[in-house]
Hints:
The structure holds 2 protein chains of 2 kinds. Chain A is of the alpha/beta class. Chain A has helices spanning about 5-10, 20-30, 45-55, 65-70, 105, 110-115, 120-125, 145, 165-180, 210-220; strands at about 10-15, 35-40, 60, 70-75, 95, 130-135, 160-165, 180-185.
Amino acid sequence: xxxxxxxxxxxxxxxxxxxxxxxxxxxxxxxxxxxxxxxxxxxxxxxxxxxxxxxxxxxxxxxxxxxxxxxxxxxxxxxxxxxxxxxxxxxxxxxxxxxxxxxxxxxxxxxxxxxxxxxxxxxxxxxxxxxxxxxxxxxxxxxxxxxxxxxxxxxxxxxxxxxxxxxxxxxxxxxxxxxxxxxxxxxxxxxxxxxxxxxxxxxxxxxxxxxxxxxxxxxxxx
Amino acid sequence: xxxxxxxxxxxxxxxxxxxxxxxxxxxxxxxxxxxxxxxxxxxxxxxxxxxxxxxxxxxxxxxxxxxxxxxxxxxxxxxxxxxxxxxxxxxxxxxxxxxxxxxxxxxxxxxxxxxxxxxxxxxxxxxxxxxxxxxxxxxxxxxxxxxxxxxxxxxxxxxxxxxxxxxxxxxxxxxxxxxxxxxxxxxxxxxxxxxxxxxxxxxxxxxxxxxxxxxxxxxxxxxxxxxxxxxxxxxxxxxxxxxxxxxxxxxxxxxxxxxxxxxxxxxxxxxxxxxxxxxxxxxxxxxxxxxxxxxxxxxxxxxxxxxxxxxxxxxxxxxxxxxxxxxxxxxxxxxxxxxxxxxxxxxxxxxxxxxxxxxxxxxx
Lengths: 222, 364
């Protein structure tokens, strides 16, 4: 495919959240050829040193600028803080929900604790104009540094993506591949429950076949 | 850095243990056993003994300063500290008075690691709102730092009553009560430690230790940015030392598996496997095996990250007191001298130069 402005846009990634998860995904994304813009809470200056040391080459910006920059945006803020982001901030954007709800860390959040359709459903309801895909949440963050492999390499780890907007899921699966992982389609957004901390695949590295099997048996028993 | 500068500590959660028949001991017995463990640590030449802070049914470390004071009365040399004090839900005035007093009764051996806390059970217990997580720690660290550095203090903030020309007793002699900031991997926490000009303690739960190299670099760069001299970096990790590698696995594995079996039952996590346990020993952050195996790994991580302090959270889970005593003996008498020997074998690399590169390119 010839290089085009479309391709350049496609290789842009925005990340909201400059913590350990966000900064680690930035490194994997840059290794995968992405132009990455990263924001924390507040000014760009506040994360300039973090970006300079942990993710040199990425753009340290505000969240508004992340939204202007990319159509594919990973949200990796602490789950108990996602409501600080305005509801319409991600209108029309593909929003990768990389967050996990941990009662021991986030405290008791009644809406999230009662989310029978999964926490990403709550995120979708909050950002109703965004195209939410649950992904990048079910491995340890350091796997983005140590676990990435070229396509076809033996032992390549798999990451799943779940979402109702199938074009958005396809885009996230392409992102996963470029980050250095095999992509597995986990189905609709509610099926993303299987990727949560109390789900069957959380925290363990699996191949694409293993991950598909686990997700399939979870879906069959649900 | 010379090898003599590296400090070797032990960290305890005062976890409920079983006896050799598998019966759980009561909390008071566990606390007295922990005092005995620290007394042995002193006798075998370990540099510090540090107690954590939790409010959970399986851990008896809710008032570590009292345990440390009891240890102070039975020991001469070992430093006595926390790992970590959950400062977010403490009153810095109390922390000061308790630990300045510990410093007095121990003849200058008190030290602190303060952190936000990775678990949040202390927030509801003491009436704090988790929504204030960041702001609480920032404010309390600011007040504690001022109390430690120069009194009287005039201060006002959001979470406690103001202080006006306040002196606290007992006074601390210059340079006493060294206070580190414990971080779990958050870059902003690393920058905060540098901003306050306090040494950094990396609290590692698991996974490959190389991933902390970029954070060590971030800390060094942030110290420069804020105009502070370079300060010490330490690391806390779990482990167990036995006579042989196999014996260490045989003793630790059932207790490690027990913890993850419970998590699997309660939270739906994957069940523990020997493969994952062994992977954590070989590539991760479990310092487990014979004295030679553990010493080699500790020396490696000290070099990799440019550490000045290594704290071993000795034994995971409900392991009996007697087996903890055995590992303390080996850590003090064999592991630490061997690490010092290994570090002396070649000059350490200059700090920071190649650390980031080493970590980000390795294994990718």
